[in-house]
Amino acid sequence: MGKYKVKLDFYKLVKREIRIMLKNFSIIYSFSTFFVIASLIFVFSVNDISYVKIFYKSIVWIVLIFSIMLVSENFLNEDFNDGSLKELQFLGFSEESIMVSKSIAMWVMIMIPMLFLMPLVFVFFQITLYELISLIINLFLATPSLTLISILSSLFSVQLKRNKIIQFVIILPFFVPMIIFTTSTETLFESFNFKENQFLILIGIFFITLPVCLMAGRLIMREINK
Amino acid sequence: MIFNLANPLRFQRLIERIEPITLNIAITLLLVGLFFCFFGSPPDYLQGETVRIMYIHVPCAWFSLMIYSIIALCSIFSIVFKHTLADLISRSCAPIGACFTLATLLSGSIWGKPTWGTWWVWDARLTSELVLLVIYLGLILINNAYEDKSKADRYASILAIIGIINLPIIKWSVDWWSTLHQPASISKFSSPSIDPSMLLPLFIMTFSFFFFFISILLVRVRGEIIQRKIEVIRFNRMA
Fold first, then answer.
1. Of B127, B134, B145, which is closest to A166 when you measure between CB atoms?
2. I need a surface site. Which of A38, A101, A122, B31 has the fewest CB within 10 A?
3. What does the domain layout of chain A look like in residue ranges?
4. Do B162 and A216 touch (CB under 8 A)?
């Protein structure tokens, strides 16, 4: 019964986060707009389209990281400012469940627009269908770690009134392995070998990121509410 | 004994006694070490005179890792025991560690040009060391970003603990990936692959850097203790 209650509460928490996210549609809108405009800037800045075709993964990932960093702030700031972060903890929700629920909501918020934006990427960067599918799989596997790290970075800066740039500086080093392995994944259909592709490394990174971020998130949330 | 010294005031008195001694040892060892580096050790048969950069580069690289390990240990200690001295030490270590890391990268770059033919390569060892520098910069930023110093210390501790992940990557990057950077020449489990005539100045320079680090650390910790005392006095006057 106890276990069932915990599951139900966590489900409610995730539902709450997704509802808030859907209510603030402007976040999804600004995320998508930023993604499209930043990608276009890259395309326009390179004269020869063949270069864009070569570096499409790097461009997509850089733009994605910056757009996630920009929107991740909204996920925690409002909860912190209106006191609901403290309230959730007071109601008995563990810091880990709060963080996971926020990450799930953020992941949904990223993946839904990204699925709609993928055809645009396909057209902008003139990539093949196989490359596109490979990129989508890549996104599915790497974005969970990315969202966890972003939530953590916004937790670091939630109490800062000025100098928000710190959020980028402290967390960007932890994106380095993600960038290296996401951009070096081969097109899945070129080799048809899931094992030798770097996709498994992305799953591995997630299993390292999850406990580290949850532990750090717990410590920061306790510090915030002191 | 350790917990007795963990009192900042007692530690400050100890610093005042130890600091001049460590600084003198550092300067003496540095002069002896430099003599051995330039006159007491032979040039390399392949690299020639450029090998002498090793006497700066290698100790700096060791200390960049060692200082981060100290920060990480102090951070764990700070989170578990909430002790001010651990915070003071990790706060004071961060800029020194950043300087050692920067010195490692710069000296490595200067060494790389004649040896590898390039100032920089995106090699696993070099990249992970650069990431370490960025983590150090992040720690310094956090330490200065918050008005409440205890909060800043706590956040910096958390970031330092997360950053521990980078240490084994730096250490074993040369073994895990095929890199341009050479593997470790001095290992605890095997005899060193460096000639004793080069090993001696290297160790002298390492000890010199060690005492230099200790003296700078002590000066910085003393400064931090005094600064906090001033803050307390100011706060009391305002109240």
1. B145
2. B31
3. 2-224
4. yes
